[in-house]
Amino acid sequence: MYSKVSLIALAVVVPATASPIVGELGTRISFQKRNALSNSDGMFDHAKAIQQVVRDHNKHRANLRNLEQNAGRDAFNEGAEVRPLMAYPAHALERRQSEALTDEAHDEYWAGNITVGTSAQNFFVDFDTGSSDLWFPSINCTQSACANKHKYNARVSSTSKHTNSNFTLHYGDGSAVSGPVWTDTVNIAGLSVHDQAFSAVTNLSDSFGPQANDGILGLAYQSLSDIRMPPFVNTAKAQGAIKQAEFGFKIAQSGSELYIGGTDASQYSGDIEYHNVVGSTGYWQIGSGKLTIGSTTISSDIKTIIDSGTTIVYGPPDMVAKLYQNIPGAAVYDENSGFYSFPCNNVPSNIAFSWGGKQWTISPQNFNRGRVDKQHCIGAIAAQNLGLGNNVWLVGDSFMKNVYSAFSFEKNAVGFATLK
Ligand SMILES: *[C@@H]1O[C@H](CO)[C@@H](O)[C@H](O)[C@H]1NC(C)=O
Ligand SMILES: *[C@@H]1O[C@H](CO)[C@@H](O)[C@H](O)[C@H]1NC(C)=O
Ligand SMILES: *[C@@H]1O[C@H](CO)[C@@H](O)[C@H](O)[C@H]1NC(C)=O
Ligand SMILES: *[C@@H]1O[C@H](CO)[C@@H](O)[C@H](O)[C@H]1NC(C)=O
Question: Residues of the signal sequence (predicted)?
Answer without folding.
Answer: none
